[in-house]
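User: Quick sanity check before I run a bigger batch. Here is a single chain. Can you write out its predicted 3D structure?
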Amino acid sequence: MKKIILLTWLACYTLLMQAQNQNPRYKNTDADNYEKPISNHVPINVTVPEVPKSYTLFGEKIPLEQWDIRERFDRELLVNTYMQGTTCYIIKLMGRYMPMIEERLKANNVPDDFKYLCVAESALQNQISKAGAVGFWQFMKGTAPSFGLHIDDEVDERYNPEKATDAACAYLKQAYNKFGNWTAAAASYNCGMGGYNGAMTAQGENSFYNLLLPEETMRYIFRIAALKYILSNPTRSGFNLDYDDVYHSVNVKRVTITYGIGDLIQYAKNKGTNYKMLKLLNPWMREKYLNNSKGRTYTVLLPQ
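Assistant: Done. Predicted structure follows.
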């Protein structure tokens, strides 16, 4: 009996080996017998962005003659130039949102370059940070009301790009009045007015470029500068997007309300649209209803 089982096993093993030898998947791939395909791979030609000899941000000169300042700017140019997918998407979004941001900055007498601070904060998206900062301008819940943004169970105006831009302008003008220059105001947007003032007082320095601040804040200003350099002239950095490649403003009509509109799904249908589109155009609406019991004034955007 044992002999029959052994013979049967040997026969099966022989058949298996023959099948493997006939199947190209099991052919010998030893280095001596394996013919490697000819590679057509060409190494990527990486070019280094040229750091300008002089540059201004918020209308104020960056002291690029200092080696550490120049290298910090160089680092952010490298990083942001070679995040191609992210940068392309930002350029696309700029077509939709920058006209509004530029208009609000101008109306508030804040330098146009602060639109790049908005990009540095959120990449022009209603994002939520790990710390809980929200929206295009990344306001914290505790800070937002101080600059005119209403937050309750139904509404969070940090998600309203237009109102959040006005709130950011209010912060930046307050910081400018405190520190006397826009670069310091921008740095304080990252580390807080108290944090910036404490570092300035402790170190006996008035210029941001002479201060030792947290690494995130040190990089922050140079990231804004790099984004300005890249996004103000994208083709210079190799980003070649045509007019049809970018996203454009959505045609909307504005409805001012001082009353509750109840169920938003039904409201959207009554206005000839749907709940999804209503929420896309008005992300500050945080629930499925808007009772507005205190009669606040809101502007609702609807498809044109």
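Strands lie at 55-57, 60-62, 252-257, 262-263, 289-290, 298-303.

User: Great, the batch can go ahead then.
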